[in-house]
Design a protein that fits this description.
By secondary structure, this protein is an alpha+beta fold. It contains 11 helices and 28 strands. This is YheC/YheD family protein.
Length: about 450
């Protein structure tokens, strides 16, 4: 179906009809000015008489009433337009669902605030209307939210979206009645929403372990269920990690190192590592139990990983789904742990480097190239397997991989809501992941006959 990138602009204050450029009416075959133009955006519609104006660019000038009925701010918007079944359809409309906190007349979207600005900038280039909303902004099928204008996010009524990217940070929110109501309404109106839920670490491990190709890249991992099971595991391994099944950003991870004199236990906190020695497993368990009883944990064999300048290192590889249902690597960084930390998460003080930069210092040129290629291929395979087996729609994964001292790769973790709190390696440009998300939004919106 033919579509064109158009400029939607406000008409004069006294006007009560649409002004459509001749260039656009020629494309869509709209020549009878005696008819009424049906104009839609999302699920919102308006009907107005139209006048053809002699302009070579693709322009629609609309009165204030049209902007109000379409629930879009009365300002200039670059959008796509197509003509179908007597209706001039504008769009697409993409929205991000997340937490929004207001204070002093301003709103903040937490750790993805700057990222939302990047998404907005990509949408402006792509010709897509974009806004951010929270669960509180949806009521009985009606949407409000925040649009970006002159450097600020402003609250207003918003059109119903064509596609939603779920960036809620709380598992509790995803289990709330408000989220259930919203997702039911989106499903009812066949509006796709992607990365619709968190995947816990144990569920992800089981999906990957069932795959014959990926199984050799997984460290030995078990669900912590009994005291005896923990003792057997720790006794068999030199180093054991105990990770919360529902954890994120490297928090609440415990590391147990077995030695001749007993056990060394340390765990990540916001102020560094807490370290304690225990001579017996009984003493160790007494120390661990107050932490373990709070939530579910899994236990994982510690791998003798490659380090950089004496610090722990891994690789975060962001993968995005494309319009042909294949996956691509959008970006990759090496993460080196901060001082007194055994995890490399940026939230725990880690530092970012280019993988090429670090691997070229640790290996010869040919070996470094093949390792980068292997890490990318492994990340794509992980993304394909998890997206196929987990259910729902996923458009982005953050894959954490590491290399051991022999150069063998290991799958550490798969993130369905990868952190956006760091600005990336080039803070002056929108991250490739932002473009990947918006391109997937455009595809899911079904606005185009997807050749793009």
């Amino acid at each position: 179906m033919t579509h064109r990138l158009i400029m939607l602009t406000p008409a004069g204050a006294e006007e009560d009809c649409l002004f459509i450029s001749k260039a656009l009416t020629d494309v869509f075959g709209l020549h009878d000015q005696s008819t009424i133009a049906n104009l839609s955006l999302g699920r919102n519609r308006t009907c107005l008489p139209f006048v053809i104006i002699d302009e070579e660019s693709f322009v629609i000038r609309a009165p204030q009433s049209a902007f109000s009925e379409l629930r879009i701010p009365a300002a200039e918007h670059m959008l796509h337009a197509k003509y179908q079944n007597g209706e001039l359809i504008l769009g697409p409309v993409a929205a991000v669902l997340t937490e929004a906190k207001s204070a002093g007349g301003d709103v903040h979207f937490g750790s993805i605030h700057e990222y939302c600005e990047e998404l907005q900038s990509i949408c402006t280039i792509r010709g897509c209307f974009f806004y951010v909303f929270s669960l509180h902004d949806y009521k009985n099928g009606s949407m409000s939210g925040y649009y970006y204008s002159d450097g600020k996010w402003l609250k207003a009524d918003m059109p119903y979206p064509d596609v939603v990217h779920n960036r809620l940070h709380s598992r509790r929110s995803e289990k709330s009645a408000a989220f259930t109501e919203l997702s039911a309404d989106l499903n009812l109106h066949m509006v796709p929403y992607f990365n619709d839920r968190f995947l816990d670490k144990w569920e992800t491990h089981q999906i990957l372990y069932a795959n014959d190709y990926l199984r050799p890249y997984l460290p030995r991992t078990e669900l912590l269920s009994t005291k005896a099971g923990l003792q057997d595991f720790i006794t068999a391994e030199d180093t054991t990690f105990i990770k919360p099944v529902h954890g994120s950003q490297g928090r609440r991870i415990l590391r147990i190192i077995r030695s001749e004199s007993g056990y060394l236990a340390d765990h990540t906190t916001f102020s560094g590592e807490f370290i304690r020695e225990h001579s017996t497993f009984k003493d160790l368990y007494s120390h661990l139990y107050p932490h373990l009883k709070q939530s579910s944990y899994l236990i994982q064999k510690g791998i003798d990983l490659l380090s950089y300048r004496g610090s722990a290192m891994d690789f975060r590889i962001l993968c995005h789904q494309k319009s042909d249902y294949t996956w691509k690597v959008s970006s990759a960084v090496a993460r080196v742990s901060g001082s007194n930390q055994f995890v490399s998460n940026i939230a725990q003080g880690g530092e970012l480097f280019q993988p090429r930069e670090i691997l070229s210092q640790l290996y010869d040129r040919n070996k470094a190239y093949h390792l980068r290629k292997l890490l990318n291929e492994l990340s794509i395979e992980v993304s394909e397997v998890v997206s196929a087996e987990a259910g729902g729609i996923f458009g982005e994964f953050g894959i954490d991989l590491a290399l051991d001292c022999l150069g063998n790769p290991w799958i550490i973790e798969v993130n369905t809501k990868p952190s956006k709190s760091d600005p990336g390696l080039n803070p002056l440009k929108a991250r490739p992941s932002a473009a990947g998300i918006i391109d997937f939004c455009l595809y899911l919106s079904r606005f185009f006959d997807y050749e793009e």
